Amino acid sequence: MLCGKMIIKESDDCPREFCGVFGIFGDGKAAEKTYLGLYSLQHRGQESAGIAATDGEKISLHKGMGLVWSVFQNPDIMPGLAGTSAIGHNRYSTTGSSDLMNAQPIVIRSRGSQIAAAHNGNLVNSSELRDMLEEKGAIFQTTSDSEIVLHLIARSKGESIEEKGSSLFHVGSLNSSLPPMR
User: What per-residue confidence (pLDDT) applies to 158?
Assistant: First the structure.
């Protein structure tokens, strides 16, 4: 097993947590509360942090390399993440390189609306899925397996985000076409 940068025996003691994902829906301070949630989950990933927030019309995103407090230390960041729903992510890379391009949430535009996703876990068949999608013309911006999930959602024939993602598990998502909850 990999613990930090060391390979250890399964019986040795070390944290076995990967990434932190946090979300808020229907709250006027969604981004601020997501920040606090990420801060409390900092032990799950110290590589990068990010928050995507929506007001029901558009998704705003801020992400960076480093600890939560350092990524969001500029006081001008939070006002730019206005909205009533937000998702956040602390990254501990298990797939893909430790690089800003792999920081999450990942935001895409598909069929006239934006989708943001924060994913914790590994796709066991990510190489096969990436190869299949690339053969069909997909262009990837990251080396993370999380982007594969977004490509699958974008290619789905479902009408709503719920229908598109119905077969996917462990994916937090925001869709800018959904009205904010009041």
Answer: 74
